[in-house]
Request: fold
Amino acid sequence: MSVDVYLKDLLPFCKPLTEEALEEKLEDYEFKRGLAKAYALKHKFGNGATMKIGGYTYRNQNLYFWDAQNEEIVEPFTEIDDYGSVPPRFVVGDGYFSPNDWIDEVEHNAYVFPARPLINKMKACAEKNPDKKKMYVTINGEKYLVSYDPIEMKDKWDSCVINACEYGSKSLEVFPGDPSWRETIVDEAPSASASASATPTPASATPTPAPELDSVVTSVLDSFKARAAAGQKKYGTNLDRTDLKTLDWIQHMQEELMDATLYLEKLKREFSHTNRPSE
Reply:
């Protein structure tokens, strides 16, 4: 179910703005996305969750999806039609999402993208039964009736899209899609232990092996983490905050550098005193 996020919900992330000032600031596209991200992180949204900034608006204009895997705000996918649909990176299939997970959250259409294992299953069934126009597939324990045009879908299964029809329905329709739409789609099958709430890694973001870190780097990273945790506890926010302007950050940096200079001067004096040659 999509979360309606109103001005009063966003004010804690951008003090000392008033509701009137915040409403004006929300005209800034990047500012609005930044607030949506801060809200999703604060409330620990799950992968594929949706929110409407300011509540309902026509044609999904204020609808945003949360990619928890990459901690990104994603807008509706507008290549299918200008209302926008579920973005390609959120795929359906066993171990992934179910076809009607967003049926009440996206206005006007219910197009979703199948994961590669589901495509392979449907493709194999269609090739085995070339004269049929329907098949059954099981997704996350639910059995769905899939309708398609065998002539239209010939050689088009690898880039197909699914229409989830209506809420509660176990009927799906499959149509040809554009191969370029799959650029952010997960194409690898999930592990045997994966569940429907798993957050798969996009094929375009396959992780590379992390380098082995030496003790010095590890110590510094641990110090950063400890300092970040202390700052979060002390100030109730972190560097994702959006209430400070560029000049505010510059001022903070100047103060930190002044402190650093004083600390260095203190250490220099102590070092000079300790290492002064004896007369």
